[in-house]
């Protein structure tokens, strides 16, 4: 039996219950100027209670199958339907709105205008294309700003584009630390598409707020750039995997591009039953990775890209040495003596949870491993970070891996593989790893405004 709904008394609703308020106010009927009914004034405690109740309700609702959510919301609509006349009267009284007009609507996507794309240094060519192509395809003009550490690929790419594109449509500006803020605050730029560290991403968002620029932020926690407790992409390895195969791919996921990959594997959790064997196999696989000049045959691990990153990553090697963490691969942990920014890849065996190698994003060829026993607990550890970019899950049964993947708070999960991005699929960060998406069928809409045209009959 549905409860009786009265349209002359009003309450806050918190945790499924009608809640009164110490303080009340009332609206005015804009047609007559008459006072309307009492409305509650929420207290700070009401907000706290509502947020806590929403947090409790959110997880089971998020796990409810889509069809079931549809059916529940249909029931909601069915419960409202008997009161449509009451609502018509209510809306007229509180808002003065004339009701009922027939219309037909068409929704269009229109380009935003000028997009400034700000790039990091770890993939100078790939990032430039990833940003300028959808911006142009959606009908915008684009100005690329490469990282000062790696300006050359983007400068050359845009030079070549001049053979085909009209002047001004795709431009590139290299520069110093003043250039980024000039772009993010410029009143005639409509969107900032930014990839880089979370700390800089927050500055970009703040600057963009001045003119309400659209932003897409693809972020990672840059090493020692932020006071937030760090976090970084986890690998969860279940006990039933093919150890030799998985070990080699884990090593690849951690050390590809000298570990300078936003979705690179940065913390490896291995089930305790196979921990020691997997670690040995990883050490053997890592030893096969030749370090040296990227132009030489067989070289898999090149130098760090720049001196700043090299010095930061060296702090993690120094931490391992100072605290006598057990490490694998290479004869010692001593640092490079040559001119280039080379480091021997290292696997750090079970460092404490509060060590920098666990809490910071390394972006270098050094990776920690830790054992796990309880599945729920390891998922909790993987999620215990403000970051949420990617993760990998390794298990014999893909359905089992999927169950773990669905509980990870990240934008991309790779099952039984090291991270391998695909531009045709959406790529996005959860939590402080970003806002918006790149890649996939919806990525073009990120470079558009929506326009709805209403035709009245
Ligand atoms: P960064 O944040 O220092 O710099 C990124 C870009 O922002 C550079 O072009 C820089 O010149 C510019 N910039 C700096 N200050 C600015 C400001 N105040 N306003 C506007 N622009 C400003 O990052 P980085 O060190 O170049 O790149 C490495 C970081 O990027 C790593 O943390 C890595 O994980 C992350 N990254 C993330 C993704 C992702 O998709 N989430 C992809 C690649 C790299």
Relevant terms:
457 residues, Aldehyde Dehydrogenase, Chain A, domain 1, Aldehyde Dehydrogenase, Chain A, domain 2, six-stranded mixed sheet, globular, EC 1.2.1.3, oxidoreductase, aldehyde dehydrogenase (NAD(+))
3D structure, described in words:
By secondary structure, the chain is of the alpha/beta class. The chain folds into 2 domains: 12-226 and 432-449, Aldehyde Dehydrogenase, Chain A, domain 1 (3-Layer(aba) Sandwich), CATH 3.40.605.10; 233-421, Aldehyde Dehydrogenase, Chain A, domain 2. The protein is 33% helix and 23% strand. It has 13 helices and 23 strands. A 7-stranded mixed β-sheet has the order 15-16-17-12-11-18-19, with helices on both faces. Strands 8-7-6-9-10-21 form a 6-stranded mixed β-sheet, sandwiched between helices. It has a two-stranded antiparallel sheet with strand order 1-2. It starts with 11 loop residues before the first strand and ends with a strand. Residues 226-231 and 331-335 have low confidence and may be disordered. The chain binds nicotinamide-adenine-dinucleotide. Nicotinamide-adenine-dinucleotide binds next to helix 6, strand 9, helix 7 and strand 10.
């Amino acid at each position: 039996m549905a409860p009786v709904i009265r349209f002359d008394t009003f309450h806050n609703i918190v945790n499924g219950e009608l809640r009164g308020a110490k303080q009340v106010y009332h609206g005015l009927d804009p047609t007559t100027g008459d006072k309307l009914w009492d409305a509650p004034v929420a207290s700070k405690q009401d907000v706290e209670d509502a947020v806590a109740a929403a947090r409790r309700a959110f997880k089971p609702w998020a796990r409810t199958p889509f069809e079931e959510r549809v059916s529940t919301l249909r029931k909601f609509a069915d419960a409202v339907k008997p009161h449509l006349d009451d609502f018509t009267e209510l809306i007229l009284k509180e808002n003065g709105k004339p009701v009922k007009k027939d219309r037909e609507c068409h929704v269009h996507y229109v380009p935003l205008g000028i997009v400034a794309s700000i790039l990091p240094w770890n993939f100078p060519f790939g990032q430039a294309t990833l940003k300028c192509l959808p911006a142009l395809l959606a009908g915008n003009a684009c100005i690329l700003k490469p990282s000062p550490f790696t300006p050359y690929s983007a400068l050359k790419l845009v030079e070549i584009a001049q053979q085909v594109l009209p002047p001004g449509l795709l431009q590139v500006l290299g520069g110093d630390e003043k250039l980024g803020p000039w772009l993010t605050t410029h009143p005639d730029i409509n969107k900032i598409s930014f990839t880089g560290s979370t700390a800089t991403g927050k500055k970009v968002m703040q600057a963009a707020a001045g003119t309400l620029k659209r932003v897409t932020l693809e972020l990672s926690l840059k090493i020692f750039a932020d006071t937030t407790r760090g976090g970084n992409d986890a690998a969860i390895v279940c006990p039933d995997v093919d150890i030799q195969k998985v070990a080699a791919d884990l090593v690849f996921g951690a050390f590809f591009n000298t570990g300078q990959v936003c979705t690179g594997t940065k913390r490896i959790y291995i089930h305790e039953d196979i921990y020691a064997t997997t670690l040995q196999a990883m050490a053997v696989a890592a030893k096969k990775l030749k370090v040296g000049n990227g132009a030489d045959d067989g070289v898999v691990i090149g130098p760090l890209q720049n001196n700043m990153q090299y010095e930061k990553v060296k702090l993690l090697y120094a931490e391992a040495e100072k605290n006598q963490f057990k490490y694998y691969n290479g004869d010692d942990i001593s640092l490079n003596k040559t001119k280039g920014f080379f480091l021997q890849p290292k696997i750090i065996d079970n460092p404490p949870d509060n060590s920098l190698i666990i809490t910071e994003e390394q972006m270098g060829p050094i990776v920690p491993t830790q054992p796990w026993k309880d599945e729920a607990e390891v998922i909790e550890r993987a999620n215990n970070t403000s970051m949420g970019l990617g993760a990998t899950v390794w298990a014999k049964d893909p359905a089992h891996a999927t169950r773990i993947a669905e509980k990870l708070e990240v934008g991309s999960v790779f099952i039984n593989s090291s991270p391998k991005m695909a531009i045709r699929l959406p790529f996005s960060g959860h939590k402080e790893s970003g806002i918006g998406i790149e890649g996939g069928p919806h990525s073009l809409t990120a470079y558009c405004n929506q326009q709805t045209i209403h035709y009245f009959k």
